[in-house]
Amino acid sequence: MSDMFLDSLDDLTGKVAIVTGGGVSIGLETTILLARRGCTVYIASRNQTKAASAIDAVATRLPAGAKHRVLFHQLDLSSISSALESAHAFLSLKDARLDILVGNAAVMSPVYTLSPDGIESTFATNVLGHYVFITTLLPLLETAETANIVLVNSLAYSAVPRINYGDLRRKNGEDGSNLMDMKRGFLRYSISKLALIYLAFELDKRLRSRDATSIKVNACHPGVVAFTTLGTGTLSPAGKYLVEPAVRFFVNLLGNTAMDAARTQVYLAAGREVRERDVHGEYWMPVFSWNRRFCGCRAQEIENFARDEGEWVRLWVFCEEAVREKNRNF
Fold first, then answer.
1. Which residues of 283-312 are buried (b: 16+ CB within 10 A; e: fewer)?
2. Is 141 within 8 Å of 215 (Cβ atoms)?
3. d(CA 84, CA 130)
4. Rounded to an integer, what distance in angstroms lies between the CA atom of residue 127 and that of residue 316?
5. Minimal CA–CA distance to 149: which of 162, 163, 134?
6. Among 131, 189, 267, 283, the one annotated catalytic
7. Distance set, CA 45 to CA 10, 55, 77, 279 (Å)
């Protein structure tokens, strides 16, 4: 890896980050890049065994003695109570501090299921879980001299111009038994990514309105990640053995490495330019060369429908009400 990119980041010695889904793919690369700049990084995920394996893998790519800077934090984003419990557990850590929060974890499935809270599972994990986790940790983030929140997005958001909130609570849906379910699963994923744009921009707006300007909130598209496992393993036999391999072949052929795909979110989390220019409320994308190598990243205009501030508020209110249905003290 060129040191030029690392040199563009602030020195993170003494700082603390959480990366949701930080043990696999671009989440793992994000963890490594932040740790290489001296940051203590918590891999926030459901599976402690897999996280332990990831930490061992990280140790082979960090300077000697740096393994202790990568830690595990239990987080299940699929339910409101588990996300809330995880955030409170972090707040209760001795000498707790938090400077960077990268909302990287995501799921996608052709099978329609409901979360324990009765919300469509993709939306519940990708959006509602992050909403609960992040907003509960805001008081700790506000104690940092400067803090960065990055919500990892996808250009898939542009596939859906509006969120049908009623559809998020319907009782029955696709079971993955036909090939159209793969498309419907992708559209549910797209809805969750549109919602994350709303969440990022509304959170940034609310923080600015109460003068909490030390926290910068941004979103980004990392690129098309080769060899990702996102959306795999739940298709019918026809999809599993015919469609999925074909899709994976083209994604792996044309996609970017996980290391290169991680760099935009790392730059928003720790880039010197982000701090010096007070970058906030923006949507960034990577720039790749003809052979799909990372050349830099920059702000990108989003679709007009994603800039509708009324929709930002509507998403926020939906999340707020969904949480209060389960926890009146939230």
1. bbbbebeeebebeebeeeebeeebeeeebb
2. yes
3. 10
4. 10
5. 134
6. 189
7. 26, 12, 8, 28
What gap in Å lies between CA 171 and CA 82, rounded to an integer?
22
Q: What is the pTM of this model?
A: 0.91
Strand order, beta sheet including 100-103: 70-74, 40-45, 16-20, 100-103, 147-152, 215-220, 283-288, 294-299
Q: Give the single-character DSSP code of 111.
A: B
CA 141, CA 204: separation in Å to the nearest integer? 13
Q: Which of 231, 119, 128 is nearest to 185 (CA)?
A: 231
Q: Are the C-beta atoms of residues 193 and 219 closer than 8 Å to each other?
A: no
The residue assigned the tokens 């400077």 is 99
Measure the CA–CA gap between 124 and 21, rounded to whole angstroms: 15
In three-state form (DSSP H/G/I as H, E/B as E, the rest C), the secondary structure along 142-173 is: CCCCCEEEEEECCHHHHHCCCCCHHHHHCCCC
Which residue shows structure tokens 């923006």? Answer: 282
Amino acid at 32: I
Coil, helix or strand at residue 215 = strand
SS3 137: helix
Whether residue 189 lies in the annotated active site: yes
* CB hemisphere CA count around 231 (13 angstroms): 23
Q: Distance between CA atoms of 33 and 217, rounded to whole angstroms?
A: 20
Can you give the pLDDT of all 330 residues of the chain as single tens digits?
457 899 999 999 999 999 999 999 999 999 999 999 999 999 999 999 999 999 998 889 998 877 789 999 999 999 999 999 999 999 999 999 999 999 999 999 888 999 999 999 999 999 999 999 999 999 999 999 999 999 999 999 999 999 999 999 988 776 666 667 778 888 999 999 999 999 999 999 999 999 999 999 999 999 876 445 554 455 555 555 455 554 443 444 455 788 899 999 999 999 999 999 999 999 999 998 777 778 889 999 999 999 999 999 999 999 999 999 987 766
Q: How far apart are CA 314 and CA 168, in angstroms?
A: 14
